[in-house]
C-alpha cells in the first residue's frame, strides 16, 4: 500500500511557518510515510525550495473554485484546491492535514481507516471538521466533486461545508469512519485540558493532532489561545537559529496566561 501525508499551501507564502512546523512534527512522530505539499501557482520559488529542503515533495496544483459559494473569509475561496488530494491516485490512501495542524504523536494508524474518515467539528459535532481527513484518491470521486462544486451547498463557503454536503451520510457511517476528537483537537481545548490535573492524564494518550483553527501561532500578536509552546517547539526544529531560552520562556508564559484567563471564568 502506498501512503502519504498531504497538506495544501495556497494564497502565497503566508502559511509557510505552519507547513514547516507540521513537517517537523510528523518527523518527530517517527513516521516513515512521505510528506507531500500541494502548492498553488502563487507560492514563491524560494518557499518551494525551502519545503523541499525540509523533506516535502512539492506538487503544483491548479486552482479550484466554487461559483456558488459565499466564502466566510476571503481565503476560503482558494481552499477548494484541497479537493485535488483525490487526484493523487499514485497513492492508495492519503491523510490530509491542514497547514495549521500539528502532530503530537504518531498517527500512522490513520492509514488503516476506511475512506472516508474525519473527526467531529468542535462547533457542530454532527458535522466533521476538514482539517484532518483520511481518503482514498479516486479520479471518479474527484470528477463527481467537480461536477457538483458550483451548485452544492457549503455552509461556510469553503471546502468544509462542501465536503459535509458531498459526504452527507458521514455521521451515519460505521464508527471506523468517525475519528476520535483527539485526532483534530482545537488548540484552546488542548490547553484547557492540559491545565487541569484531572483531564491531563487522559489528554496525554488521546491528543494526537492540534488544530490552530482560530489564532495562528506564527502571527506576531501575543498568543492567548493555547498551545503556543507546543507549536513553537516544532517551529524551532525547522529554525534552530531562532531558538533561545527567552523565547521558550515567552511561549510558556503565553500558555500560562491562557490558563489564568480560563481559571478566572470557570471558578
Structural features, described:
The protein is α/β, with parallel strands linked by helices. It has two domains: 181 residues, Spore Coat Polysaccharide Biosynthesis Protein SpsA, Chain A; 80 residues, no CATH class. It contains eight helices and nine strands. The strands form two sheets. The protein has a six-stranded mixed β-sheet with strand order 3-2-1-4-7-6, with helices on both faces. It has a three-stranded mixed β-sheet with strand order 5-9-8. Helix 1 crosses helix 7 and helix 7 runs antiparallel to helix 8. The longest helix has 22 residues. It is globular and about 50 Å long. The protein starts with a strand and ends with a helix. The model has no long low-confidence stretch (mean pLDDT 91).
Task: Itemize the secondary structure elements and their pairings.
Layout: E1 3-9, H1 16-28, E2 35-39, H2 45-53, E3 56-60, E4 93-97, E5 101-103, E6 117-120, E7 128-135, H3 139-148, H4 159-166, E8 185-186, H5 187-194, H6 197-206, E9 209-211, H7 228-238, H8 245-266
Parallel strand pairs: 1-2, 1-4, 2-3, 8-9
Antiparallel strand pairs: 4-7, 5-9, 6-7
Amino acid at each position: 500500500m502506498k501512503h502519504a501525508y498531504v497538506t495544501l499551501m495556497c494564497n502565497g507564502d503566508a502559511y509557510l511557518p505552519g507547513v514547516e512546523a507540521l513537517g517537523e512534527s510528523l518527523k518527530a512522530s517517527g513516521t516513515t510515510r512521505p510528506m507531500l505539499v500541494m502548492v498553488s501557482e502563487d507560492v514563491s520559488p524560494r518557499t518551494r525550495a525551502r519545503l523541499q529542503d525540509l523533506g516535502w515533495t512539492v506538487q503544483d496544483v491548479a486552482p479550484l473554485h466554487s461559483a456558488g459559494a459565499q466564502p466566510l473569509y476571503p481565503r476560503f475561496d482558494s481552499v477548494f484546491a484541497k479537493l485535488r488530494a483525490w487526484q493523487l491516485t499514485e497513492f492508495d490512501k492519503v491523510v490530509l492535514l491542514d497547514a495549521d495542524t500539528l502532530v503530537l504523536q504518531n498517527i500512522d494508524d490513520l492509514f488503516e481507516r476506511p475512506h472516508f474518515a474525519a473527526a467531529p467539528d468542535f462547533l457542530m459535532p454532527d458535522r466533521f471538521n476538514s482539517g484532518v481527513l483520511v481518503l482514498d484518491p479516486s479520479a471518479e470521486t474527484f470528477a463527481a466533486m467537480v461536477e457538483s462544486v458550483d451548485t452544492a451547498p457549503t455552509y461556510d463557503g469553503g471546502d468544509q461545508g462542501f465536503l459535509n454536503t458531498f459526504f452527507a451520510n458521514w455521521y451515519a457511517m460505521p464508527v471506523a469512519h468517525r475519528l476520535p476528537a483527539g485526532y483534530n483537537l482545537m488548540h484552546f481545548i488542548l490547553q484547557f485540558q492540559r491545565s487541569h490535573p484531572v483531564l491531563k492524564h487522559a489528554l496525554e494518550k488521546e491528543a494526537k493532532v492540534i488544530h490552530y483553527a482560530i489564532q495562528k501561532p506564527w502571527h506576531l500578536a501575543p498568543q492567548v489561545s493555547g498551545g503556543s509552546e507546543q507549536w513553537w517547539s516544532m517551529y524551532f526544529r525547522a529554525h534552530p537559529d531562532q531558538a533561545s531560552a527567552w523565547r521558550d520562556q515567552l511561549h510558556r508564559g503565553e500558555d500560562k496566561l491562557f490558563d489564568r484567563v480560563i481559571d478566572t471564568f470557570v471558578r
